[in-house]
Amino acid sequence: MPRGLTITLGEILNFAYDSFCSNKLQFTLTSLAMAVGTASVILVATIGLTGKQYALRLLESIGTNMIHADYQGGGTRIDSTPDPMTMQDLQAIREQVPSVVAASPTVALGDRINVGGGKQSDILVLGVDPEYLYVRNLRVLAGRFFDDADSAAHNKVGVITEKLALKLYGSASPAIGGIIKVSGLPFTIVGVFKESVDTFGQSEIHDDTMLIPYTVSRFFTPTTEVHEMYFSVATPQDVIPATAAIQSVLHSRHRAESVYHVENLTQLLTVAGKIADALTWMLVLVAMVTLLVSGIGIMNIMLATVTSRIREIGIRKAIGATNRAIRVQFLAEAILISLAGGVVGIVVGLAVPYSARFLTDYRVPISGLSAVIAILVSSVVGILFGTVPATRASQLDPVESLRYE
Q1: Where are the beta strands (DSSP E) in 162-217?
Q2: Are 85 and 188 contained in the same domain?
Q3: CA nearest to 298, candidates 372, 387, 392, 394
């Protein structure tokens, strides 16, 4: 085949580079728009992953290894005799489910206390075991949590929420040693606590809550029933099998029609992760609109380039360049502009989260997949929006092109 009818890859790149040098400003601005679009895709993916990581950490702070059980009643039988859980159930679960490392019952009581100025306020009193501190991943802000010795001795001690301490004493520390009367009996405050994650009163712990030893709470209740049970297992992998095992133990110890709800946070974490992923992909798709806008810019600049180089195209065709060679040349120029912007965008998009890692203690997640997607999309954009100008250039009539002024 004659030399003039072929074009090598090196010649294509040389032509594209020469064209870039001849129109530096236009091509640079177009590449900059592509860089912004590419960086946006990566940064949006990073923001989405960071939000997902933050939300999952908040949920995990409640207790990823925690399992909760409560009594739902007699099911569909209206005349069913109540069959609540008892401490014997908790002890049986400890013995039959080896993965359980900590457990606590809860008994809810209510009372009214003086909050100063002659005013009274309702508080929630929960009877729990000392292990409740670890099962619920609570944070002790001042003082201490009651221990096994307090439970065994039936000491009238309690720990209160930070918000209740602020309401009664103005801050956490002055609350230590204070007295709160429950049904006329004085309880000494030995600690102030808060949940690791504020559940806004949606958990069993409300804003105005005091925890007392379960053994002492039995003085105020005529029955031995347990309202709820909380368990903690050794590892996250034990959560699902332990949940099933606890459900089985409860059913084996009670009537068949009794309903017990045993749940964990695993399903909630899974759902939260899927929602976060869906939102991230939606944001990435929105960011890709920027790349499409950049592609239109590439098409415009390439169409203008074709118009300004009509005589050059006519000369090349006159000496034997084929339509395919002309088409490949202009398509290569469009891809070069797109890829140049894409590479710069990837560098910027990855540099920002990497810099954040050095400036803060928080480890910002970086998605390598978003960088791959960004460079692939920028290449596709270059091909798609460079096809029209390249086709137009290849279809120019060589005679009319040589006459063009």
Answers
A1: 179-182, 185-195, 209-213
A2: yes
A3: 387
